[in-house]
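Quick bug: Recombination protein RecR output formatted oddly.
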Amino acid sequence: MNFSSKLLEDAVAEFAKLPGVGQKTALRLVLHLLNRDKEEVQKFSNAVSKLRNEIQFCQSCHNISDLKVCEICASHKRDHSLICVVEDTRDVMAIENTNQYNGVYHVLGGLISPMDGIGPGDLQVDTLVERLKENGVKEVIFALSATMEGDTTIFYLHKRLKQFAINISTIARGIAFGGELEYVDEITLGRSIVTRVPYENSLS
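Here's what came back:
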């Protein structure tokens, strides 16, 4: 692709680094910004810069937050004896949209994937174990995508957590194998949370 401007080329190259964005889409986005008011583009730039520089991760659950402890973990209305383990913030948002869950979360920050060089040490597993040692947790729900990586992660976590006197469950498999949690419709996901089953039962 030939560019009439080095500034344009550099901007397109940066946008093209975003997931799912090719050069043509990146060019369309950059040209869109060029057609907006300078103040609007500056506001966009400031929002992205502020996001990257000021965003925090909850000390308790590792969810993205504006504060050291996220609103969910800080809420006295939530059931802190119930922890839902998810891959990332997108899954927290998906489950919250169902309005079927009132516990708290634990964001792993990924899934075990040997092919991608991601092992248990790369995830927030140890902090989950520490939460179970310190708090009066009664149940942990595994709400991970129905993929090989998701099942591998659940199997590993179950081995780490079965030492605790708690219920360990997994969301019901109304979700097709290979399905990513964030793309599941709210009704199906909500039903999967409500009709969760003991993890041992899901192995049979």
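Actually, after a second look the formatting is fine. The domain at 76-202 is CATH 3.40.1360.10 (Dna Topoisomerase Vi A Subunit; Chain: A, domain 2). Closing.
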